[in-house]
Amino acid sequence: MPQDLQRILTLLNVDLAWEYAALVQYIQHASMLTGPQYVAVIDELLEHAQQEHEHAVILSDLIQYLGGIPTVDVAQRQTSLDNVEMLRQDLQLEYDAINRYLQRIKQLESLEMYDSAQKIRNIAVVEQEHAIDLEKALGVRKA
Ligand SMILES: [Fe+2]
Ligand SMILES: [Fe+2]
């Protein structure tokens, strides 16, 4: 296997471990968030969890398709007893995911693997939507 592809497979497995972490973290945070202002947010987090599950399946299948072995590792999860802190942790996870996926798109396209890059691009768009949801829930203002 070419070294470039080997490197990308290693990185895609890192991405997969972070998708598993996001799935677990969102389920736990949805259970732990409490307060009337968080009822809608809880539903949103559970929707995010479902989409992280979908991302994990897409990545696992992509890794296998490209000749690798999908990891069963789960990256670091974070939690807190504070509502806002949990949402901040979730937002950071999304920012990190977007950054990793933008790198991955570039790396895959540099190997002319445009089809695989497209799959990652689709995931990145959903992560951006997740980040927007969390920024709104947290009241982040950028201007
Ligand atoms: Fe995801
Ligand atoms: Fe996400």
Structural descriptors:
single chain, 143 residues, mainly alpha, Ferritin, 4 helices, 77% helix, binds fe (ii) ion
Give a nutshell description of this structure.
With 143 residues, the protein is mostly helical. It has helices at 3-32, 39-65, 83-110, 114-138.
| Strand tally | 0
- Proportion of beta-strand residues: under 5%
- Which whole number gives the mean pLDDT? 97
CATH architecture: Up-down Bundle
The DSSP helix count reads 4
Bound molecules: fe (ii) ion
Distance between the termini: 48 Å
Taken from the alpha-carbon principal axes, the silhouette is: elongated
Structural class: mainly alpha
Note down, in words, how this protein is organized.
By secondary structure, the protein is mainly α. It has a single domain (3-138), classed as Ferritin, CATH 1.20.1260. Helix content is 77%, strand content 0%. The chain has 4 helices and no strands. The protein has helices at 3-32, 39-65, 83-110, 114-138. α1 runs antiparallel to α2 and α3 packs antiparallel against α4. The longest helix has 30 residues, at 3-32. The protein is elongated, with a radius of gyration of 16 Å. The model has no long low-confidence stretch (mean pLDDT 97). It binds fe (ii) ion (2 copies). Residues 19, 22, 52, 55, 97, 123, 127 line the site of one fe (ii) ion.
